[in-house]
Structures are given as structure tokens and as C-alpha cells.
Amino acid sequence: MTPEQRSVLNDIIGAALGAVAPDRAVHRHVRRNDETLYIGDVPYDLAGYERILVVGAGKGAAPMAHALEGVLGDRLDGGLVIVKYGHTMPLRRVRLREAAHPVPDAAGERAAHDVLDLVAQTTERDLVLCVLTGGASALTPALCDGISLDDMRTATRLLLECGATIHEVNALRKHVSAFGGGNLARRAAPARTASLIISDVVGDDLDVIASGPTAPDASTYADCHSIVTRYGIGTRLPASIRRRLEDGLAGHAPETPKPGDPLFDHVQNRLVATNRQALEAAATAARARGYIPRILTDSMTGEARHKASELVDEAFRTADTFVCAEGPCCLLAGGETTVTLRGDGTGGRNQEMALAAAIALDGADHIAMLCLGTDGSDGPTDAAGGFASGLTLRTARERGLDPHRHLDDNNAYPFLEGTGCLLRTGPTLTNVMDITAVLVDAPHTMPMRPDGDA
């Protein structure tokens, strides 16, 4: 990758992440005029509330709570938010607790129950402000009676390893949770609840983001049974979770609160940042650097390596039919892919996309790609993703790295690190899924395509 290509891609990273920074998101949607708080166009008369609390969870919950502290000042009475280890910042009135992500731990379990206990003490004279971002599901493992944290860890790991989507993972989580699936709103009633939500799921469905703690739940026990059957993990699930699903199907365990439940008459859910906003900011940054941006989708799903190949194919088509006539182009896509584990290597979905793209781009030095997890944490690694270009495999050959072997072993991290293509940002304190940017310049000479065509 040339220094110029990397510079443009880094500008795109900065613009995209800046557009969905949690504190900026809060300030775009929340304002105070004397004793009236506005969340969007909904007014809240602060004089009419005895207590105002901030609760919530997620990788970006701390800066959201900090922004609310600034807006509310001494009208804020306290609160509790849960963040991933290392995602803290100083707060004055809201307590912070740290917990594990993506595999839940006991700290998260205790903290989630403490949040539930806190909102259970509220009355109709109180206002509960809830901040929710990506990671909240794993950070709030308050489970139904009889289900242990180890059981939930096992179920989560099974779903992630078999390639289940976040929608599927959260459907099961909600039906074994005392926190998700509208249960936080149920516990806070009759207080008024308003949630500020940063979406980390395709489609921005409120009942899926963070497992929907304050949203009506459209998923059912029947959906959970279908997911478990589809991936063939029914016999591998812990007995307590199998029993909960069976009880639910038989009507012996209560369903999560559904659309139309009167409790949601006193709940406002507002999206404050999305993947689309990040893509639009990335497009603006690309245009400023002389590239014509094209946003392909904000709903990219599927196997990471396959999506990489599709994007590379689109880049080649763009080079053929668009670039030479109109100018260089930047293709942008957002969403969340999955990886089906076949090996025991180290990496994440964005790193796997970058590795697969590098293989498909071999020799095409006019194309460069960035694959970014907007939270700064791609898989169980310290990387946010990776870069790829037509020059990546040249470096790999010089350093004795076999890209196909690394891809077969789901071992993208050491390959990208060894070729200088690993992307590290550190915790970004936000999460709107993933962003892929592909720079397509006019080729000096048309390279051979992966399929052998000229």
C-alpha cells in the first residue's frame, strides 16, 4: 500500500469515528432549556421529577453518561453504567463498573443486578435516562433463575463459533435474561424511561440493539428453538438453557414484553448514532481527498472472506467502467460479517476480510482496502482490523508468509502484523459495527484478474 493510499484511508477512519462519537451523539439529540430537557422533540419538565438517574451499558456508555452529566448538572442525582474493561473515563455523579466482553463475567453479572435493583426503587415521580451502545448484552448478564453465568458463557461461545448473527445471539440472550428483551423497562416502571441508543446491529432494530433492555421484544421462544436447531447445537447447550427454552415453548416461562404492552407508553427509545452516519462522514472525507464516494450498503452481512471477494470484484468493475472516465472512486460498505471457525488461529472478522482481500488483490496496486471494527476491537485481539492492497502479497512473499495457509487457519492477525497491514486504534468508545473502504484509482496497466481475465 502506498503512503498516499494509507493517508486517505486514515482520514476516512477519523471522519467516520468522529461522526459517531458517543458524546457528540448525545449533544446532537439532547438539549436543556432552563427546566425543560429535550430528547429529540420530546420535552421533559425537570421540575416535575424528584430524581433523575442515568443507567446503561456498553463500550461507549461512559462518554454518553459524561455528556448527560454536562447537560443536567446538579439536577442529575446519580446512576450506574457498565463498560468494558479499559473503556472508562472520569465521571462526577454516575458510577462506573467494568466487566468483560464478549464473553460475560461475574463482574458484569453483579453490576447488571445492581442496575436492576437501582431502577426498581424508582417511582412515577422519577426519570430514568438509559444509555446503550454495542457490547451491552455481554456486559449485563443478569440471568433468569437457575441459569449460571458459565451456562450463558457456553451458549454465547457456541453461537459465536458457529457463525450465528448478532440478531440470533441476542434472541437467545433475551430469553434467558432478566435485563434484556424489555426487562429493564419492566423493572423501572412506573418511572418514565428515556433511552439514548447507539446502534451496533444491521437494520438498527431497537429490540436487537444491546438485546433491547427498554424496547418491546419481537423475538419468541419459538425463534430461539429455530436458531438452536439451524446450527445443530441443541444437544451441546447447557441443560439449564435447554430447560428454559422448553419451558418457554410450553408456556411455563413468561415471554418477554411485546409490542403493545402498556409499559412502553412511558418509554422513549431514540437512536443517536448509526453505521449510516459513519459511512456518510467517511464519504465526505473521501470526497475531500479527491475520491468520488459510493456508499454500497450499511447492511453488509455474510461470511467475511466472501464479502471481501465481492467487494474486490466490485472494485475491479469500477476500475473498468467508472474510474477512467470520472476519476478515482471510494467504495464504502458497512454492517457486520461473520466468521465460521475452521482453524485455531488468531484474528477477527475485519482482519479475515483484509486477508481475503489481499489474496484477491494480488498485483492490483491501484486498489487499497481498509476493514475496520468501529469499536477498535476486532475479535479477541488488540487490533481494530486491517489494510489490504495489491502490494500486500508481495510483502508476504518477501517475508515467507503463506496467505492461504493463514486464511485456512483463521489466522489473519499474525499475517497482517507481519506484512505491516494490521490496524490498531485502541478503544474508540463507540460501536456502530464495521466499515470497509476501498480506494480505486486508475490503473497504470490493467492487472490480471483473480479469474485470469485481462
Largest sheet: 6 strands, parallel
Mean pLDDT: 93
Helix run count: 16
For the largest beta sheet, what order do the strands appear in spatially? Answer: 6-5-4-7-8-9
Helix fraction bin: 25-40%
DSSP, total strands: 15
Structural class: alpha/beta
The end-to-end distance, rounded to whole angstroms, is 22 Å
Q: How big a fraction of the residues is strand?
A: 15-25%
Q: What gross morphology would you assign? A: globular
- CA gyration radius, whole angstroms: 23 Å
Quick recap:
With 454 residues, the protein is α/β, with parallel strands linked by helices.
What does this structure look like?
The structure is a single chain. The strands form three sheets. Strands 6-5-4-7-8-9 form a six-stranded parallel beta sheet. The chain has a six-stranded mixed beta sheet with strand order 10-11-15-12-13-14, sandwiched between helices. The protein has a three-stranded antiparallel beta sheet with strand order 1-2-3. Residues 445-454 have low confidence and may be disordered. The two termini are 22 Å apart. The longest helix is centred in the last third of the chain and has 23 residues, at 304-326. Helix 2 runs parallel beside helix 3 (61-72) and helix 13 crosses helix 16. The protein has 454 residues and is α/β, with parallel strands linked by helices. It has helices at 3-19, 22-29, 61-72, 106-120, 136-139, 149-161, 166-174, 183-188, 221-230, 239-249, 275-288, 304-326, 349-360, 392-398, 403-408, 412-418, and strands at residues 30-33, 36-39, 42-45, 51-57, 78-84, 95-99, 126-132, 192-198, 267-273, 292-300, 329-335, 367-373, 385-389, 422-423, 434-440. The protein contains 16 helices and 15 strands. Strand 4, helix 3 (61-72) and strand 5 form a beta-alpha-beta unit.
